[in-house]
Amino acid sequence: xxxxxxxxxxxxxxxxxxxxxxxxxxxxxxxxxxxxxxxxxxxxxxxxxxxxxxxxxxxxxxxxxxxxxxxxxxxxxxxxxxxxxxxxxxxxxxxxxxxxxxxxxxxxxxxxxxxxxxxxxxxxxxxxxxxxxxxxxxxxxxxxxxxxxxxxxxxxxxxxxxxxxxxxxxxxxxxxxxxxxxxxxxxxxxxxxxxxxxxxxxxxxxxxxxxxxxxxxxxxxxxxxxxxxxxxxxxxxxxxxxxxxxxxxxxxxxxxxxxxxxxxxxxxxxxxxxxxxxxxxxxxxxxxxxxxxxxxxxxxxxxxxxxxxxxxxxxxxxxxxx
Length: 322
Known about the structure:
Blueprint: E1 4-9, H1 17-24, E2 29-32, H2 40-44, H3 50-54, H4 62-77, E3 81-84, H5 87-100, H6 113-137, H7 140-173, E4 178-183, H8 190-197, E5 204-208, H9 211-216, H10 226-236, H11 245-258, H12 272-284, H13 289-299, H14 304-321
Parallel strand pairs: 1-4, 1-5, 2-3, 2-4
């Protein structure tokens, strides 16, 4: 059997577990987007309860993590090989432990992976803090500027992360046949890093996990919000500018106020998160930069529900006036 790999792009939402499981079952091995955990094997073999495994982890999406653990147990029982591969995050944990033991940034040797990870993370964290500071009191123009600054730095961090992960993935692929590679949608450029490192002609397919669900809902779109689009532009074109940068940054500010912040735990077959993302993306596409400039000061301190109502009222008024 010819070796091949499928790079599967999706977000960590409870509703993605079922389609992911179906696709994982068609492969011999699964490469997960997570750093190695010491109790992973014990959880898979049911020597450790899932809740006990998860309780000490810093979980952004707890319901997704619980359902995914249940799925991974089933796949493990069916003979699938599971790998936790995310060297950037693994090295970030090593850096935190190094500092906890009294180490200092100056002790990280230049030219090493640890120094590269530390630098990328420090720059991205600093840019994010500047965004939070400006977004509270700054003007719309100032906030748009720091959004773009953060997106550029974040794109550089993703470039480091993807390169490191591609190296680690290729090492795993050498010993496997059909392999499922899990990746967040923002890591779409990972396919380029993999193609550069894999042997010429190695079959590598890229699949957006929720593409069928998006089509079934009647959308001919993707699940990238304006902030992700901006970050991907900088990721693919780190030295270029675009006349649409301000527009995407402005729309990102509105998008972040409208999108659901918490996991929607309910009927996953109706894809509530995917529907929410598509609806908000469709909404902000109706906004010009001038619209964003008008709306942002009004909704920046509003709740998600209030912001949604205010933006919809604004668009209805704008349509009626037009």
